[in-house]
Every structure is written in C-alpha cells, then in structure tokens.
What does this fold into?
Amino acid sequence: MTDSDHFSPYRPDGKLYGFVCIVTGAAQPVGSAIVHELATCSNSSGEDYSPLESKISKDHPNTKIIGYPYSPSNEEDTLGLIDDVLNAWGRLDVWVCSSGLLGPAAIQDTTPTDMQKCFEANSMVPFFALKYGPPAMAKTTPKGSYPNAAPKDQKYGSIVVVSSVASTYGGTGVRINCISPGQIDVGVSLQGVQKENIGLERAGMPEEVARVAGFLASGFSSYVSGANLVVDGGASTMCPLTIPI
It folds into this structure.
C-alpha cells in the first residue's frame, strides 16, 4: 500500500480520518468502547444508541454518528446496510463485529432457542461481514463523487471479528483479524475467579478490547492479517487447560 494523492490509510498517527466504519453491537459495553476508539458507529436494532451518539458528538465533533436499525444476523438486512453505506459515502473501510452473545451459565439452563441465538450472533454476523465486506471495501471513490465522503483511490479495508475466525482475502487489500477477549467486565458477575485464573489478577475493561480493535483498524497494523489477538490478561497462558463450561 502506498500513499494516496488524497490521504493515506496508513497515517503515521494511526488516525482514521475520512474512514467509514461499521460496528455491530455498538450499544453493548465492548461495542460502545470500540465506537469510542474508532469514533464512528452503526447500531443494531432494538438498542438505544442516543447516549453513545451524544457522548461521541461531544468528544469528537468532526465524527458523524449514524444509528442503523437492522438485524446483523439477517442477510437481507446486511446487504441493505452495505448498499446504504456505499450510496451515501461511496466507501467502506472498517467493519467490526462485536455483536457476540453470551448464553446461560450452564448447559442445563440452555434451550434450543438460546443456542440458535448464540449461533446467529457469533457465527452468522461474522460470516456476512467476511462474505460481503471485502467487495464493498474494494470500491474506490474518485474525488468529488460523493460530497460528504473523502476520496478513496486504492482498495483498502480492515475487518475485525471479536471472538470468531480470522482469515485473509489475498489480493483485495482487505485485512481480516480476530480479537479473542477473556473475562471482560461488562456488568456480569465473574464469581470471584479472576485472581485465581488470570495473570493480571483482574478482569479486563471494554476499553482495553477497544484499543486492540483500534490498532487493527488503523495503519499501525498494516502488516497484520489473519491474526488472532488474545486479550485475556494472561489467562490462557496461566491456565491453558481450563475450559469454562
């Protein structure tokens, strides 16, 4: 990737000026923190993003916030989102899937409906992003084509999947990476096990996952693709045989 005549995706300061980003699950703790890191947003249906919009608008007045009510696990809705993004801005640069869903604590309490919802959130949402994201990111935007969009004259994109597969689309200019978070404090009781099983002896914060997503979305990770970044405070190395069920 070389510098564009208009701007470089790989800015030395790592900022995403001029980028158009999608973040699913933006109203949830980790997704909200990622939006703050990227300072742009798309929202899933049925969730109130207005407090997030107000906060981002105050902290980042040059960032445009748009809540998009759609079902991330629905193929038709996903294609509609991509069409609307490309029609409005002519480009898509970053797609973060952060709409993962936790099921009941024990399998005895898990119903087939719970299982289906987990499958849709953790598998179908990344699947649609990986399938339809790269072609959209390959679209270039000549200067002046879209009055509210920065020009884009090179194929570029970054897909970040929180806790799912990571892959690489060769020749498309799109980097695909995965974040595998450990115990993150999202307001759910961790039952006091973090000190025993985590190297840093504490739960992680949503902002700490968000910083990794920001790194993967930015030019600081220009040679990182197909990677799985584990953000678990050392839990996987402290207790590699412990599998929570």
In short: The helical segments are 29-38, 50-59, 75-89, 112-137, 194-197, 206-217, 235-238. Residues 112-137 form the longest helix (26 residues). The radius of gyration is 18 Å.
